[in-house]
Structure of Phosphohydrolase:
Amino acid sequence: MDVQAVFNKYYQPGTPLYQSVWSHSRLVAEKALQLAKAHPELNLDLDFVYEAAMLHDIGVFLTHAPSIYCMGDKPYICHGILGAELMRADGYPRHALVCERHTGTGLTVDDIIAQNLPLPHRDLCPVTLEEKLVCLADKFYSKSNPDREKPLDKVRQSVARYSEDSLRRFDEMAKLFL
């Protein structure tokens, strides 16, 4: 896979949106690879980890989030599902799963129904080790402050705002990789 070519298919190089999403994705990929290399016993697919981390937010341009230069018409919460659709259409079903399962610490069908989210009524939680790793690494960076890694305590506080379940899922991923 040529990650740059896939990215350039959907984002115009040189634009603020391109810079925002590419920079964020690069930091997530670097963090994910750093953690993967610290755990050779897990036998993670490093090429896939890199590709998936670089493309996990590929669908964000279709959402409406002006503060990060996204001028689409869909709610931001849908960016994972939208990215998954793009990845499946491009022939990357495994990457699609990372896209749709990285939001928060994953979303259960109960979360989706309880919060009335505009998402399919099915579990969207990371399953494989690679999916969990990209999901975890993503929590340490935001697109609004892309150059600053959040400290672990701040990430935990942020995740805990959503639910105890969300924090539990985060802590399980952290136990695997941190």
Notes: The chain has one domain: 3-177. The radius of gyration is 15 Å. The mean pLDDT is 96. Residues 3-177 form a domain with the Hypothetical protein af1432 fold (CATH 1.10.3210).
